[in-house]
């Protein structure tokens, strides 16, 4: 009886050690509500969010912009840049040339593409229908990935596995003179991450300690 109870305690101790080594997922939303005025050709405007306290390996990312207006949404480009410099275009050549009143748009890999000629509030996967060209400084220039249909990158392929802690930035450009737009309530960033798994050697050590501890106790019981 006593041996069985102790064996169960040792097993739970070992499971706890291995769980601590492999880590648990963490998730959080971060926001910057400052307005982003979308500039004309030849410049870009941006907004930054500082992320901290998460595990160091991203498992998923989503982005939301709030109160987006523009007289010609088809001319707008948006790109999100992570702390490592990895970047993905979120929106490009979408929504047609009809002006939009304030809408909220979220970007997630699990949603459908943004319609070519009708941009409304909702959740969509990052979508780019044509070349956006460069996002001038302080933007990433041409150093960004493009999603379908112009490219094939996703939020997952761009950011998963990288460290989320640090500064994230959202940049906007407009390719048409005379077009005006704004993201008046800023943007939100949802990040899920886990600590990087412990190396196999550390997990093996935990398993060996578990086995050794159990054997020592079994020998000590008459």
Overall domain count = 2
Q: Provide the residue-averaged pLDDT.
A: 84
Indicate the low-confidence ranges by residue numbers: 1-22, 199-203, 217-221
Name of the level-1 CATH class of the largest domain: Mainly Beta
- How many helix segments? 3
**What is the CATH homology-level superfamily of the largest domain?**
Galactose-binding domain-like
- In N-to-C order, the SSE pattern is HEEEEEEEEEHEEEH
- CATH topology category name of the largest domain: Jelly Rolls
Number of strands: 12
Distance separating the two termini:
12 Å
Q: Approximately how much beta-strand content do the residues carry?
A: 25-35%
Main sheet characteristics: 7 strands, mixed
Q: What is the CATH architecture annotation of the largest domain?
A: Sandwich
Approximate helicity band: 10-25%
Alpha-beta content class: alpha+beta
Radius of gyration: 24 Å
General form: globular
Structure description:
It is built from 3 helices and 12 strands; from the N terminus they run αβββββββββαβββα. The protein is α+β, with helices and mostly antiparallel strands. It has 2 domains: 1-23 and 197-222; 25-196, Jelly Rolls, CATH 2.60.120.260. Strands 1, 2, 4, 7, 8, 11 and 12 form a 7-stranded mixed sheet that branches. The two termini are 12 Å apart. Residues 1-22, 199-203 and 217-221 have low confidence and may be disordered.
């Amino acid at each position: 009886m006593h041996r069985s109870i102790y064996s169960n305690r040792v097993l739970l101790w070992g499971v706890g050690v291995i769980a601590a080594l492999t880590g648990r997922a963490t998730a959080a939303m971060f926001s910057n509500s400052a307005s982003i005025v979308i500039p004309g050709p030849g410049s870009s405007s941006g907004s930054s969010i500082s992320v901290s306290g998460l595990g160091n390996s991203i498992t998923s990312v989503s982005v939301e912009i709030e109160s987006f207006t523009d007289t010609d949404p088809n001319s707008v480009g948006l790109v999100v840049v992570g702390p490592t410099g990895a970047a993905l275009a979120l929106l490009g050549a979408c929504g047609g040339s009809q002006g939009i009143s304030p809408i909220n748009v979220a970007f997630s890999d699990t949603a459908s593409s943004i319609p070519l000629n009708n941009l409304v509030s909702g959740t969509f996967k990052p979508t780019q229908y044509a070349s956006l060209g460069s996002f001038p400084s302080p933007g990433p220039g041409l150093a960004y990935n493009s999603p379908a249909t112009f490219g094939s990158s996703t939020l997952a392929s761009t950011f998963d596995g990288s460290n989320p802690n640090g500064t994230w930035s959202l940049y906007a450009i407009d390719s048409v003179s005379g077009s005006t737009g704004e993201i008046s309530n800023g943007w939100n960033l949802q990040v899920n991450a886990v600590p990087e798994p412990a190396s196999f050697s550390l997990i093996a050590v935990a398993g060996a300690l578990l086995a050794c501890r159990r054997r020592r106790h079994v020998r000590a019981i008459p």
